Amino acid sequence: MALFVVFQTTFFLTLLSLRTYQSEVLAERLPLTPVSLKVSTNSIHQSLHLQWTVHNLPYHQELKMVFQIQISRIETSNVVWVGNYSTTVKWNQVLHWSWESELPLECATHFVRIKSVMDDASFPEPNFWSNWSSWEEVSVQDSLEKGILFVFPKDKLVEEGSNVTICYVSRNIQNNVSCYLEGKQIHGEQLDPHVTAFNLNSVPFIRNRGTNIYCEASQGNVSKGIEGIVLFVSKVLEEPKDFSCETQDFKTLHCTWDPGTDTALGWSKQPSQSYTLFESFSGEKKLCTHKNWCNWQITQDSQETYNFTLIAENYLRKRSVNILFNLTHRVYLMNPFNVDFENVNATNAIMTWKVHSMRNDFTCLCQIELHGEGKMMQYDVSIKVNGEYFLSELEPATEYMARVRCADASHFWKWSEWSGQNFTTLEAAPSEAPDVWRSVNSEPGNHTVTLFWKPLSKLHANGKILFYNVVVENLDKPSRSELRSIPAPANSTKLILDRCSYQICVTANNSVGASPASIIVISADPENKEVEEERIAGTDGGFSLSWKPQPGDVIGYVVDWCDHPQDVLQWKNVGPNTTSTVISTDAFRPGVRYDFRIYGLSTKRIACLLEKKTGYSQELAPSDNPHVLVDMLTSHSFTLSWKDYSTESQPGFIQGYHVYLKSKARQCHPRFQKAVLSDGSECCKYKIDNPEEKALIVDNLKPESSYEIFVTPFTSAGEGPNATFTKVTTPDEHSSMLIHILLPMVFCVLLIMIVCYLKSQWIKETCYPDIPDPYKSSILSLIKFKENPHLTIMNVSDCIPDAIEVVSKPEGTKIQILGTRKSLTETELTKPNYLYLLPTEKNHSGPGPCICFENFTYNQAASDSGFCGHVPVSPKAPPSMLGLMTSPENVLKALEKNYMNSLGEVPAGETSLNYVSQLASPMSGDKDSLPTNPVEPPYCSEYKMQMAVPLRLALPRPTENSSLSSITLLDPGEHYR
Amino acid sequence: MASSCLSPGVVPLLLVLHWKHGAGSPLPITPVNATCAIRHPCHNNLMNQIRSQLAQLNGSANALFILYYTAQGEPFPNNLDKLCGPNVTDFPPFHANGTEKAKLVELYRIVVYLGTSLGNITRDQKILNPSALSLHSKLNATADILRGLLSNVLCRLCSKYHVGHVDVTYGPDTSGKDVFQKKKLGCQLLGKYKETIAVLAQAF
Fold it and tell me: Which PANTHER family match (chain B) (predicted)?
């Protein structure tokens, strides 16, 4: 027993010591230090991949451990990340862990170290951290290719709105490097002389082809190169919307959803998001090939409840939505078929259709829509398989469209698609009488009645109106009636009726029958009742008309008018108890006058004109101005008149006229007021308020003044168009007086001249006879004046000629007389060459010798031998000389001097004939009168003749031709010869 | 007869004539003294066709270049000299004063180089710029003409000068490059193409 106790004690002690030893051994070997740390890089994901093992792990034992990892950048002291990684570690297990760097690995050297601690419940406290492993350096820069500039990360894929760090590595620190994002420079933080990092916060999505980010190295202004990267920014994956599933045949579930934005990127950097359907009860999964729908095959194991999860996924994100439903609650029926109509008549039809059978006890709820005449009616009906519905209260001759859709009546999910068909109801007789009106033109002996009717509305026509029947019945002679059928679509007809009363019935007819008749009576009395026209004002809504009720019974009133410019008669029926109405139509145009006539319809259906009204829906300003005539113009007034101006054909009621007057005077005339024209000029204005007053006397004007006038009509909308002013100038105040005096004077002078002309012979004989009477000569008075008793005047009768000496003139001597061109030779044939001054023998009464002298004064031919007053003119003589020589003054002067030389005191005014003494030398001794005479014919001084020079011949016109006239008078050729 | 068609000299030619976009594997090297054999007789006016094709390429090169760099976005359009300069390494040389045979051989090398490069560019742009249809169309048209030109040059070399083999180099493989580098290399290649094709059109 003692031995047993000793043995037991020894066993326990041994066991205790073994346990103690074991604990000591574990305590010595722990902490378990990570060893064989290796770090690799993944440039695409910019991640460090760590792998290590843990030594000293017990064989076949799993321990839960925590590893603390420390990552430094550029230098070990610059720790950028510290974190723990917990895992269960087996003996000899290689552990893996990754860390993604926000800074591209190529831009900085990274250092990694790790330590661990046991975190296993089987090993009670105290646990403590192992030592750090040695730093593991990771540098990717060394693997860069040749080049002076590198930009990282390459082709990185990020999500819109995320933060991205990019960096560049410049081999030459002398280079100045600038970086740009979409052309806009970005600024970064220099990590070391070669490396600069840029933090781009919340990068935007620009395009699915990626965003170019580039850096340019330069020295001074010299570019050393451009390098860049393309950053692919993806849109954020959205959660699918409106996810639902349904079945039409209990074989296939059709699931649909709204996918939202497509996150596909160019360069195959990211395809469109994928969609996967997962059903949790069956555990089945299906990758959907379409982005917005997917079909799921229903298995035959009668699964009723489904729990679907739709998973959307791209490279960056995963989204999912879930629905749970019972299959029988998601029945979407196929649309009904065999839709048809039976027993279609004018107002009823039966609609039939079929639905696809789902199961035996299946009940459908169907909805029917009936569209027609712009209206829609809806009916619901429950059916099994074959549907039928009675459509009533339909309109005749109307096309309808009926359609039907159905749904599961027990668990309504959604309506099926519509199935429809058109049908047309049959025609019926028109249900309403046509609206008829008339216009009557009374002529001697008959009436011309024009009937108008409005086409029946489709509602009342009940079909296509084929013709109208017009029955004309003579009320005075009832036996006579006439039927006229007028084919549609005519809406009027003309009747010529005699002076009897007529009843006219109009019906509209379609293929089924006639409408009720519309009756109108034309009385025998002419409709020439004088009714005063009243002006009314239209409004935007039309014309508001009111009238006095017709005495006696009326069945209604009719207002008619003409539409312009179509000139179509329009009318409106008004009830018997109404005495006002508003005529409103879109046909009313501004500036058009509308005439309304209001008729009362008696119980005998005879229309009686009650009132006339006229007005404009909107008055406009006059379109033209009157043509103004100015008359009765005096020095102080004139009259304006525009009688031809029509006030009726204007786009508004002419209310009067404005007369504008412009003058130089600043003050306006009485009755005129100052006004300013549209061009800013001032003038005077006179307003005429009576449109029929079309004349105005403008008075109080100044003589010899200019005025401008302008007359324009005005309506309530304004004046007529602007136009030019008419100028009026008042005459001189004395001019009329002068006219009053001068006209009679001129008349008197003319009268005297006419008398003188008519009595010229008498005057000539009286005042200046051809042969002067010596006894009447002034010489006689001169002699008497000198009182010479010895001198006597020889009496002609005393002279008895002894002989007659005939001196013949050379033939051919011709002198053309100016104007007549008649030679003197011809003239002389009828006249003696000499005047027989001596008395014939039987007449001889005087005893003394007779002196006979030749009187050249009366011999025109004498001039051919030369005239001293005329100087032959050399063709080369200057015109000035000619003028001197031939001027009438010179000639007259010369002649006057000759008179004086020869006759002394003989007054020149006593005779018109100038006597020239034969003894006198008219020209040679008169050098003063013709001092410039260059050529003086020598024989002129020798020529002595007594002649009379008719003034009309001696005084040529003082023109340049005057010399020629002289030459013509005295032919030079002849003269020189 | 079949054995003659598949002679060592013809296989590389067929490969070149039917290259696909991005076909970057080098042609197997054939002996220099390999016989030249072609399946179809060459056209009579080959040189005229070659000239015409060169002129056609020269006429469209600038438009292609503009379309390309515009589609790449900034900074390409405004930094052509820095990003799209014609400094392409390994581009086959061309000596305009050489003999026709030498010029045709050099032209052959250049067209092969351009063909592979354009194939890479077309592939890259279809992925990167799927909506740039005008650019794709222009690239495809250019590649088509280059293929025709290559066929004609080969025919000429074979029929007249009995050259059955030409050592060629291909454009750089851009598949491992990042997107920006692909854009840049493509732009440089098209810049070089525009410059070279003008010289070639002038030389023939």
Answer: LEUKEMIA INHIBITORY FACTOR
Helix, coil or strand: residue A259: coil
Q: Where are the beta strands (DSSP E) in A547-677?
A: 554-563, 568-574, 580-583, 593-602, 607-616, 629-631, 638-641, 656-662, 673-676
| pLDDT tens figures, A79-93 | 999 999 998 888 778
Which H helix or E strand runs over A31?
A: none
For chain B, percent helix, then strand, then coil, each to nearest 5?
A: 60, 0, 40
CB–CB contact B129 A209 (8 Å): yes
Q: Do A266 and B128 touch (CB under 8 A)?
A: yes
Minimum distance, in Å, between the CA of residue B179 and any CA atom of chain A: 6
Residues of chain B numbered 149-188 and touching chain A (CB < 8 Å) = 178-180, 183-184
**CA–CA gap between residue A383 and residue A409 (Å, rounded):** 9
Tokens found for residue A266? 């160019």
Give me the CATH topology for the region A144-234: Immunoglobulin-like (2.60.40)
Cα A364 from Cα A407, distance rounded (Å): 6
How many residues are listed for chain A in this entry? 977
Helix H or strand E encompassing A405? strand A399-408
**Under a CB-based contact definition with an 8 Å cutoff, are residues A67 and A129 in contact?**
no
Encoded tokens for A474: 């003579």
Residue with tokens 């008395």, as numbered in its chain: A839
CB contact under 8 A, B75 and A266: no
Q: State the pLDDT confidence band at A900, using cuts at 50, 70 and 90.
A: very low
Cα gap A197→A166, rounded to integer Å: 6
A34-142 carries CATH number 2.60.40.10: yes
A781 three-class SS: helix
Topology of domain A436-616, CATH: Immunoglobulin-like (2.60.40)
The one-letter amino acid at B51: R
Residue A37 DSSP code: E
- Taking only the tens place, the pLDDT of each residue in A429-447 is 999 999 999 988 888 888 8
Amino acid A341: pLDDT: 93
Q: Is A373 left (phi over 0), alpha (psi -120 to 50) or beta?
A: left
* Closest residue on chain B to A43 (Cα): B178
Helices (H), B84-132: 100-128
Contact yes or no for A199/A272 (Cβ under 8 A): no
Dig out the tokens for A258 from the structure. Answer: 């709204």
Each domain of chain A, given as residue ranges in start order, spans 34-142, 144-234, 241-329, 337-425, 436-616, 628-736
Residue A489's DSSP bridge partners are none
Q: What is the mean pLDDT of residues B78-84?
A: 85
Q: How many CB atoms lie within 10 A of CB A551?
A: 7
| CATH number belonging to the domain at B45-203, selected among 3.90.79.10, 2.30.42.10, 2.30.110.10, 1.20.1250.10 | 1.20.1250.10
Are the C-beta atoms of residues A212 and B180 closer than 8 Å to each other?
A: yes
Those residues with Cβ within 8 angstroms of residue A295's Cβ, 6 or more apart along the chain or in another chain: A252, A253, A254, A255
| DSSP single-letter state for residue A202 | S
- Tokens for A17, please give them: 């010591």
Fold of A241-329: Immunoglobulin-like (2.60.40)
**Fold type of domain A337-425:** Immunoglobulin-like (2.60.40)
Residue count of chain B: 204
Q: Map out the domains of chain B as residue ranges.
A: 45-203
Angle, to 10 degrees, between the axis of helix B133-161 and the axis of helix B46-71? 150
Structure tokens at B118: 């354009």
Q: Number of C-alpha atoms within 13 angstroms, CB side, residue A63?
A: 27
Task: Say if residue A114's pLDDT is above 80.
Answer: yes
ipTM above 0.90, yes or no: no
Both structure tokens of B98: 């050489």
A147 at interface of B, judged by CB pairs closer than 8 A? no
Under DSSP, the state recorded for A606 is B
Q: How far is A194 from chain B (nearest CA, A)?
A: 21
